[in-house]
Structures are given as C-alpha cells and as structure tokens.
Amino acid sequence: MSPPDVCAATHPTGAGFPLDAAWSLDPQVALRPEPFGALLYHFGTRRLSFVKDRTLLAVLRSLADQPSARAACDAVGVPGEEVPRYEGALATLAASHMITRRRESPSGDETRSQEAQ
User: How many CB atoms lie within 10 A of CB 50?
Assistant: First the structure.
C-alpha cells in the first residue's frame, strides 16, 4: 500500500520522522480545501502541494490542536496499521516546509520552529 497521496515529492518511508513531536502547518502556508482533497501553498517558498487524501487533510487540520502528529492521526481515526503511510506523507510535507515542528518555550507555551526536523 502506498502513502496517502501528496503530490509534492516522492514519498519517503517516514523513517526518522518524529511522529511523537508536536507539528502544525507552517505559518506561511495556506490550506485550501478542494473536491479532490486540498491545495497547500507556501508563500515563502512559493511551493504548491496537492493533498489527494481526505484523511490526510483531516490530520493536517488537527495538527495544531494535538500534542503530536501521532495524536493527530489517532484523533481523526487513522487505523494503527496505516499510521506508517501517513508518517511518510507527513515526512514529505515536513521536507517541503509545509508543516513545521512546534517546540515548547521555557514558559511552557508552544512556539513554532521554522525547522522541519
């Protein structure tokens, strides 16, 4: 089975992607729902990505509200055996800076990092 369809790059396996870290859409990314899924446009890099999987779209929408990417997958009902597929798609989106890792500040507030590690 292949990863959820993200037409930005080849689909990595997701190995090394910190699924248990907190992630969100990059502040410079606009998400536009479409009948086929969604368009993601990064105003800084001028990259456009197509998301053709509605479940992946739901994961992306829930990232900011969840403590981790794994929790976002759980929150939208991704079955455990399919999580590696979504992990690969999220790794692709992180590599293209569509999503960024959030870090906790010393005060306990979450801040966004421009690094997609």
Answer: 14
Instruction: Count Cα atoms within 13 angstroms, Cβ side, for 41.
Output: 7
Nearest to 12 by CA among 20, 2, 25: 2
**Count of other CB atoms within 10 angstroms of residue 3:** 22
pLDDT over threshold 80, residue 44: yes
pLDDT at position 109 over 90: no
From the candidate CATH numbers 3.90.930.70, 1.25.40.80, 3.40.50.1820, 3.40.50.620, the one assigned to the domain spanning 23-112: 3.90.930.70
Q: In 3D, which of 100, 4, 103, 110 has the Cα closest to residue 57?
A: 4
